[in-house]
Write a structure and sequence with these properties.
This protein has helices at residues 4-11, 15-48, 70-75, 110-113, 121-129, 138-144, 187-193, 215-225, 238-247, 250-281, 283-291, 296-333, 345-371, 375-380; strands at residues 53-58, 66-67, 80-88, 102-105, 117-118, 133-137, 151-156, 161-173, 183-186, 201-202, 204-209, 233-237. It is α+β, with helices and mostly antiparallel strands.
């Protein structure tokens, strides 16, 4: 601690350069956090997908419906522990810009399959007792101000007509980036009001398997059971389905990450060059320190400490700002079609570690040069 005044006097000698260097680190680490959040958002659906869940969809297309009688066939498969189904509704709330995903679900089995979603027992009971009841995700409820007991009108697009639902519950997720934008209502209510052609159909089935390692085999068995029928199926894991959607946006992710990475490393090079200039400007002072008895290793440590101090301070500012920004932007994006942004604590710590590493690397070459500096050569230039 006795050398702290010397360290601080060197750091704050040129305040303008210090501020600019801090900003360079802050911007670089802000980009690091933002890029990490973007990558996490694109891959989040894959990471959060249930490893023990399979989706049974129409072979030709995801929008191809399946007969309700398939449930009885699936129930005979002893490798399946739970079975449920869902249907995309596609309604409009007041305005076509008000988008949130709406599903008609089999309410008796939905919670057994999707255990990551949390609904208070009393709210779920009220939902089961009300044919017109619905459960709304927290993000959508906050966005539109839905509360328990509200009446929500939707205009059907696939299933035409005016539909009304009673908000009986609001669900949350066990994990910070679980999808809480969905709107669930009872499939029997859909069948009751839907056109006659839909009465014996559902959108797709979701099943859980006892052993995730058996998922590929079970999927083939399910598809074989419905082969050569009018309603052939394609069964795949939830993770595979999520990955297929992510691939559609893969070029966007690559573009954003590539541009951000180039900017990130450019800023780091600028920072390293700034540290090198600062050491060169103080050649004579470092020579005097050596001349009065300070060792080469002390000079090395002094320059490295300066670099690490600037890197840690600027990096901390950048990564904290990235955390705040992704939290604010993520809350807004959670109400739309884009994947939500979320910067986990582990990435925050990783960002701080990157800042320290960069500070070490940026200051290493100047520090080694200062350590190797010969007093007589340096003083000769004064």
């Amino acid at each position: 601690m006795k050398y702290l005044p010397l360290l601080l006097s060197n750091i704050f000698r040129k305040k303008t350069r210090l501020i600019l260097t801090l900003l360079s680190f802050a911007v670089a680490l802000f980009l690091f956090g933002l890029l990490a959040a973007i990558r996490g958002a694109f891959a989040g659906g894959v990471d959060l997908a249930g490893v023990d869940r399979l989706l049974v969809i129409g072979k030709m297309s995801f929008i191809q419906p399946l007969p309700i009688r398939y449930r009885d066939v699936l129930a005979k498969n002893k490798d399946l522990t739970q079975i449920t189904h869902a249907t995309w509704f596609g309604g409009v709330y007041r305005d076509t810009r008000n988008f949130f995903p709406q599903f008609a679900i089999e309410h008796s089995s939905w919670r057994d399959v999707f255990t990551e979603f949390v609904v208070p027992p009393d709210q779920w009971k009220a939902f089961e007792e009300d044919r017109m009841g619905c459960i709304v995700g927290r993000a959508t409820a906050d966005r539109y101000g839905f509360k328990i007991g509200d009446r929500v009108p939707l205009k059907g697009t696939i299933f035409e007509g005016a539909w009304e639902f009673n908000v009986r519950g609001i669900y949350t997720g066990k994990r910070p980036n679980d999808d809480t934008t969905q709107f669930w209502f009872r499939a029997d209510y859909l069948r009751e009001k839907a056109p006659p052609w839909w009465r014996d159909l559902v959108g797709w089935y979701i099943v859980r398997v006892a052993n995730p390692d058996d998922a590929p085999r079970i999927g083939k068995e399910i598809d074989a059971a419905f082969a050569n029928s009018q309603w052939e199926t394609k069964t795949q894991t939830e993770k595979s389905m999520a990955a297929s959607f992510i691939k559609q946006m893969g070029n966007i992710e690559l573009l954003v990450v590539t541009i951000g990475t180039v900017v990130f490393f450019t800023l780091l090079l600028i920072t390293g060059n700034t540290m090198a200039i600062a050491v060169r400007e103080r050649t004579s002072e470092l020579a005097v320190l050596k001349a009065v008895g300070f060792s080469d290793h002390f000079v090395l440590a002094l320059v490295l400490c300066e670099s690490l101090f600037i890197a840690s301070l600027g990096g901390a500012v950048g990564i904290v700002f990235a955390k705040v920004t992704t939290d604010l932007v993520g809350a807004a994006m959670a109400s739309g079609m884009l994947p939500p942004l979320y910067l986990p604590p582990s990435t925050v710590l990783a960002g701080f570690a990157v800042a320290l590493t960069v500070g070490l690397l940026a200051g290493l070459i100047p520090a080694v040069s200062a350590m190797r500096l010969r007093v007589i050569d340096a003083l000769r230039k004064v």
